């Protein structure tokens, strides 16, 4: 059975291919023009080394001087010796340019829907089916979208799981922003729109332990994509908690969708926290770091994913250091919200 492989590189590019029979990950890559550096092809030199971020795999032979027990426990692999038994994602600490393969694609799509979902947020739906290709990306990655009629590009995380060429992006509507003005004033269904994808090293890894997702504002987009993909797999997962922080209650969006994830993903829960609430707000108030359960994170190491503006990301990092929670891993997407 063919399985899909994602290869992520340190320059933020991701390349995809599929296996043929029981071939090694390295052979699948080479057959698809992804020239992962190699030397011995016998599990000794370590040149083809990477890490399996998600998926089920086995390794034929690994020299003990090349990867230690600790390396193996961290899911480090020699791709020439690795075979996969499910779809899988691998990461490498070198640039994709070393593999002399084209990575990110420039794709033409069409706007198929614009949905205003809160006072300051919209979902832009793009249908990329006419491009005649399967657009692959990992849940959590983003696209750079060309704003029609301008020379400007803006970056948005995919808010839906890969597997369909109808894509969603959460967009913050600014009073005078390039994309915001386009969506408000000129955009009509059917407009041609060009984007570059997939981009970014912020993506969902193998879920082996409890997960904390921390979203600031439209940083929620990346988590909607991740949760869509988790829900689609219908597999048992460790507990997943999402903390969704916004400035004003009017900024809250996609709560019904989060509620549907809570109904369909066992162990998933979420809370919404408002930092600067109106007097009528009766929910949680403050910054996310004030609502995290330090004892729980200390007792059970977690994987913590954060996507939001820099001050929020920095406050969570400071919280982790202050409480000495270094057994939990942090994955970050810090986005500077454009004011235009
Ligand atoms: S190429 Fe030498 S270990 Fe894979």
Biggest sheet character: 6 strands, antiparallel
Shape: globular
Would you identify the regions where 5 or more consecutive residues have pLDDT less than 50?
none
Classified in CATH, the superfamily of the largest domain is: Nucleotide-binding domain of ferredoxin-NADP reductase (FNR) module
What is the name of the CATH topology of the largest domain?
Answer: Rossmann fold
Number of domains: 3
Side by side, the strands of the main sheet go 11-10-13-8-9-12
CATH class of the largest domain: Alpha Beta
SSE string: EEHEEHEEEEEEEEHEEHEHEEHEHE
What does this protein structure show overall?
With 340 residues, this protein is α/β, with parallel strands linked by helices. The protein has three domains: 4-99, Ubiquitin-like (UB roll) (Roll); 105-199, Translation factors (Elongation Factor Tu (Ef-tu), domain 3, Beta Barrel); 211-334, 3-Layer(aba) Sandwich (Rossmann fold), CATH 3.40.50. It is built from seven helices and 19 strands. It has helices at 25-31, 69-73, 178-186, 220-233, 255-264, 294-299, 310-322, and strands spanning 4-8, 14-18, 49-54, 57-59, 76-78, 82-84, 88-91, 105-118, 121-127, 142-146, 153-157, 166-172, 192-199, 211-216, 240-246, 268-274, 284-285, 303-308, 329-334. The strands form four sheets. Strands 11-10-13-8-9-12 form a six-stranded antiparallel beta sheet. Strands 17-16-15-14-18-19 form a six-stranded parallel beta sheet, with helices on both faces. Helix 4 (220-233) packs parallel to helix 5 (255-264). The longest helix has 14 residues, at 220-233. It is globular, with a radius of gyration of 21 Å. It starts with a strand and ends in a 6-residue tail after the last strand. The model has no long low-confidence stretch (mean pLDDT 91). It binds FE2/S2 (inorganic) cluster. The site of FE2/S2 (inorganic) cluster has 12 residues, from loops.
């Amino acid at each position: 059975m063919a399985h899909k492989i994602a290869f992520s590189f340190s320059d933020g590019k991701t390349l995809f291919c599929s296996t043929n029979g029981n071939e090694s990950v390295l052979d699948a890559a080479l057959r698809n023009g992804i020239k992962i550096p190699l030397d011995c092809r016998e599990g000794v030199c370590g040149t083809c080394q990477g890490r399996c971020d998600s998926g089920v795999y086995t390794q034929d032979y690994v020299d003990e001087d090349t990867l230690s027990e600790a390396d193996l426990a961290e899911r480090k692999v020699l791709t020439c010796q690795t075979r996969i038994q499910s779809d899988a994602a691998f990461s490498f600490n070198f640039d994709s340019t070393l593999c002399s393969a084209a990575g990110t694609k420039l794709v033409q799509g069409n706007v198929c829907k614009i949905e205003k979902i809160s006072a300051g947020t919209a979902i832009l739906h793009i249908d990329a089916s006419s491009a005649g290709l399967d657009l692959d990306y990992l849940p959590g990655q983003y696209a750079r979208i060309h704003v029609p009629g301008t020379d400007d590009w803006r970056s948005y995380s995919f808010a839906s799981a890969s597997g369909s060429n109808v894509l969603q992006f959460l967009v913050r509507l600014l009073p005078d922003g390039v994309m915001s003005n386009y969506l408000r004033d000129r955009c009509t269904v059917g407009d041609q729109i060009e984007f570059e994808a997939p981009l970014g090293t912020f993506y969902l890894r193998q879920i082996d332990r409890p997960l904390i997702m921390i979203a600031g504002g439209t940083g929620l987009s990346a988590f909607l994509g991740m949760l869509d993909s988790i829900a689609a797999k219908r597999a048992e997962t460790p507990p997943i908690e999402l903390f969704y922080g916004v400035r004003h209650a009017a900024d809250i969006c996609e709560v019904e969708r989060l509620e549907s994830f809570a109904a369909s993903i066992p162990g998933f829960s979420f809370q919404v926290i408002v930092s600067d609430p109106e007097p009528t707000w009766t929910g949680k108030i403050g910054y996310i770091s004030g609502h995290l359960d330090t004892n729980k994170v200390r007792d059970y190491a977690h994987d913590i994913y954060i996507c939001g503006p820099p001050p929020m990301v920095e406050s969570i990092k400071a919280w982790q250091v202050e409480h000495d929670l270094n057994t939990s891993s942090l994955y970050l997407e810090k986005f500077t919200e454009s004011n235009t």
